[in-house]
User: Fold these one by one.
Assistant:
Number 1:
Amino acid sequence: MPSSFLAGTAAAIGPPRHYSYAAVLLFIVLGRLFPAQAGLVLGVPLAVGMVALGVAHGACDQLVVPAQAPARNPLRTWRYWGRFLAGYLGLAAVVGLFWWQWPAATVALFFLLTIWHWGSADAPELNQIPVAGWLSHSLLRGMLLFAVPAAWWPTETASIVNDLLRFTGARPVSLSTFQAVAGGLGMLVAAGHGLLWLWYALDGRWGLLLRELTELLVLAALLLLLPPRWSVVVYFVFWHSLQHVLRLTGWLGYAGSSVPARRALLPQLWFYLRQAAPLLLLSCVALLGLGWMLAGRLPDASAWFSLALVVASIVTLPHALLVTLVMDAPQWLRAATRPVA
């Protein structure tokens, strides 16, 4: 095997990704071995992870912009906090208004935004791929996460969508309509991935191709072997949120330690949680208060799941825009002005 292939593989995979691979595979094994006890063996660690990673991964959003200019420390100025809160809460309020006025359209917009946000978070580093390839990978990965469960678990996935539509007062879609949309999305995703992988191979990007195939196998196992209500939470907590936390530790100034990179997960998480603690605590109190107020109006687990999706959507817009415009866009501009190795 040529040395260039091995070097490209090492550069493309990177040390943090294996944490998510291992966590996803562990949950798949637990879910398959103990299906009757899934609420315990999957639910308990996922509940802990939802707080420590899922909620926490957005609890440092207020630190993202100041981290670009630490010398000026805008966190100490009321002007920064005023603009941040006005922008963040204003966007969240807009999403809430959309849920109130146009719930059916908002469901579609929420899924489209999630496709972009999750897909772009999984894209390769921009120093390894042109911007056009980065954008293509982002959209295809995000669509893959919806297309696979929609095609393999159509009844269960349609149930999640329809529960959300009913919860917000919109009309549900028929299973036949849902399957038709899922089929079209699946063909688009399959064709798009085939073309993307062909380009990787023709351009000699063997490291990216190997990482892509590895992640496809791990994600396909998750999405095919666990029902959608479990697989979406496993992905969100132990893949999307964990990877975002690991990315932000460096963004926020984590300098590492003497611990080898492949065993540095706990120091990084501890560093991040210290930064996130104030807003994380406030968020948990707010969520507990909301749950307490609505407990009498939520009859079953499906209603609670739909509420969680609505709450997540309200903060997804400002969070996703912050990641895209502040963390990703500057990389696009730099990548567009330099040759790709």
Number 2:
Amino acid sequence: MTTVSGTNIDEIPDIIDIVVAHDADVFAFARYCPTSEEKEVGITPLRYRSLLEECDRKFKMYEAQRCHTYFNKKDHLWTLYEYETGQFQIPKNAQDGMVYGGCNCGNCHMTILPTGDLYACRRVQNSKVGNAFTDRIADVWVCQMETYRGYTKFEKCAKCELLAWCRGCPAVASGQTGNFYAADPQCWKEIAM
């Protein structure tokens, strides 16, 4: 797993080559989530799309060579990229109001720290929703986690046809703006209003 920021984005393709050369089982990357006073990750949306395009080309090349490494496309913006390139299509039987993929915060995961603290997402610094030693996890899941299920609150994604499959990374948006529902700062998609 590699964290991508403006500092190392140009190194990612070479890291892929090294990972494959060393026969790693799995390789993935995710974007840096600002957690301190540094709020800019140093990656423009189109530069990030360019990285995904370059990685997609390398992944396909290595897969065609039957390399051992599995390439996990962890970042949810892969969905947008694959939608644009025809590799992903919205299923004809998709139901309105359903969440099929993308960010799992609020719909199928929670983080438990060694202290017992429960977080909606390990990457969202201010997402503490309870403590496993003092709170019933089922109650936290049904009540406090509801804060992270406001899919129509996403400032940009709520208007996008990929809402049920993508939503970018709210952790990156939250780290940069303090707003979980802000637009993903590396999303390059323009929404027609």
Number 3:
Amino acid sequence: MAQIVFTCPTTAFKVQQCLLDDDGDDDSLGDRYVSIACPACTRVHFINRKTGKLLGEK
């Protein structure tokens, strides 16, 4: 289980989220995103499993 921290783009709060381990290795994750139900704003955000960045974040 991996822990990530990201900044909610709606509220600007820091949010900590647990991600379940994936069966693939880290190199196969590439630009794969997972949907996260944000507890800060109750919206869905897409987080890159490898980098922890939001979809569209530079």
Number 4:
Amino acid sequence: MTKPLLSAIALASMLGSTATSQALAINQQPARTVAGMSSDDWNVETITEDLDYPWDIEADGDTVFVTEAAGNIAVVQNGQLRKFSLQTSTKIIRDGGGGLLGMALAKDFGTSRAAYFYHTYRADSGLRNRVIEAVFDGNSWRETRTLLQGIPGHRLYNGGRLAIGPDGHLFVTTGWTEDGSLPQDRDSLAGKVLRMTLSGEVPSDNPFKGSYVYSLGHRNPQGLAWNQDGEMYAAEHGQSARDEINLIKPGANFGWPLIDGDRQRDGMETAYLHSGSDTWAPSGITFRGRELLVATLVGRGIYVLDTRGNELKPIYTSGDRYRDVLSIGNDIYAITTNRSPRGEGPSDDRLIRLSPKL
């Protein structure tokens, strides 16, 4: 069942937004902060309930795009939901937490209709992941170029987030694939944040010459966002606990599996913030003005980074597992993935809009 999209998405259209969720959040200033808000402070609207393991949400003008792990892209426009399968040169494999994951719309999407996707596929050596470019003609999505393939894959630990940074390059998070040697190996693409041009080349100013690797020592990062000062943050799943929010620096080593949380080691970065013995299972993140919003799976809500107390605080919880979050104007959009990668839980996933109560 779908319900009409209301004023927040229309506001994005008025502002002529044709960028990724991170850029949308930077370019639009909300009327109020949310650090002191709770679940009772929001009006909640379900925009659509007809989603199957959604993973990424992006918006262009009055249109919202959501990836589904099985290989579909849900498009919500003028209150109507349509789904399109992504036509790829290599079959998308839906296996556990793998499948069609991250998406980033080109900054000129309104004219180019181009976007970038991260998906799992099967090779002779097992599961792998690819980064591709595809174009939407209004009736179908079709792969137009392979940017990178052969990224190590896994049923649970694939990373999978894509985002176009302020520098115009494409950033990609990858998982450790449960192999402790790979995140520390600069020759491996696993357990990393990667940086590439929009044509799939290694930028000449990457920290390691000839390498896509931008930062290393990651376990399973699933969120990327930039603040108004151009600083990049990532959200990362820990091992049962010690989930992390990290401030990403080029060439930095974030330590996994040698350190995590507040543990220290020479030449490695200690987490900017971590969950200690608790578990958030953070996934998508976005900036709302200067506030960092975090979608949490085990935390079952939307959280905000409270810089005064240096903690994550829930601003909305509902019992659902939240995979991604997008801030547009004064409203917040979020998607749930209530079924876990291990197949546990219901499949009643939805796209919601949170509007502050007056």
